[in-house]
Specification:
Three copies of one chain form a homotrimer.
Chain A lengths: L1 H4 L5 H31 L20 H29 L4 H24 L6 H25 L1
Helix pairs in contact in A: 2-3, 2-4, 3-4, 3-5, 4-5
Chain lengths: 150, 150, 150
């Protein structure tokens, strides 16, 4: 059973694997986005990172902090999705529903980063992206708890 | 073997799945708790989030920061539990011990949030909740390393 | 198939399990490192944590903040590795390559902590450790996405 559930022959697991891979790459790209902003604004948090003796450590550049907030929001939302998506896959859900939930989380979280940290788009763009992914994750978590509770 | 280990027919995996689902829901609830504090204290971190032109971005409200510290503590402790609990399940541990370890982590981390971010309870309440979950996770991690080391 | 892939008889899974266990222990040790710095510098973030009525909450001690930055960097890089390493294992990769990638991530992330938060070593020590682990994780994530995309 779980043999087949965690195989790429299972379309649910295949979709979960695809979107998890995409979201891991997206999250790791945040480090590059932060580094770009740090060099552009010469904002470094550690003395050993300072490029020139004239620079001082700085913690309050708004461009750096914006990327860092977007990154932290990823930690808070994408990382729990990784585990709950895997456990949801192991409950053997409807393929149609599961694939669309994974797709919703994947697309919404990419959109969240774009409107938060790449091009700032007025609200409710970010709130919408945030809630689509959150609600899909909450639904999966409820299904997982129900499947394991009885 | 791992077929059966990751099936809800395995009481260890069932318990792991249940508590992981509960803790994912608990973590996602932190976002709502933060949002409530942000609106109550009118503390917003992004210019595009400001509800009125009279407001300014603010980063130092103690109520918002308290919830954020509790949330970050979740990231630091619950997210590693998710992976180590799964790997520990795959080592085929004693059901009695494993189920009680998962229960200890689940209950201790819910208690940690309650005494940290919902009703502030004097120490050592938070320290106790923190260490119960930490020690259970460390024990599982040691078992996992030992099982894989030889 | 996935039966055997998630068994400790699979040398790839065994290596993944070993290094994941080591990195979970390393991450949990960051909490102890932070606590040590907090007590040494008497820097506490919550009123209920203050040991004496003369102390005030403090958020800007450079030693505490350094450990916290190292810890956050772990969250950003090690936690995504946990899920992508598992999914990469499930793609049934070459054992030689996979085991060396896991080893690279494990050793590089331990080194990252040592040169960042234990003994501060001038750059590019930390950058090197960071990029070795990052590139190995990106490679695995690309393989996972490719395996699931077609």
């Amino acid at each position: 059973m779980s043999l087949e559930l965690l195989s790429l022959n299972n379309p649910v697991f295949k979709s979960y694997t695809f979107w998890s891979g995409v979201l891991v790459l997206k999250m790791l790209a945040m480090a590059m986005l932060t580094a770009m902003q740090r060099f552009k604004t010469k904002t470094f948090a550690n003395p050993e990172d300072l490029m020139s003796p004239k620079l001082k450590v700085k913690f309050d550049d708004p461009n750096v902090e914006r990327v860092r907030r977007a990154h932290r929001n990823d930690l808070e939302n994408i990382l729990p999705f990784f585990i709950i998506g895997l456990l949801y896959t192991l409950t053997n859900p409807s393929a149609f529903l599961a694939i669309n939930l994974f797709r919703a989380v994947g697309i919404a979280r990419v959109a969240h980063t774009l409107v938060y940290a790449v091009v700032v788009v007025p609200q409710p763009a970010r709130a919408l992206a945030f809630f689509v992914a959150l609600l899909a994750t909450v639904y999966m978590a409820l299904q997982v708890v129900l499947a394991a509770a009885f």
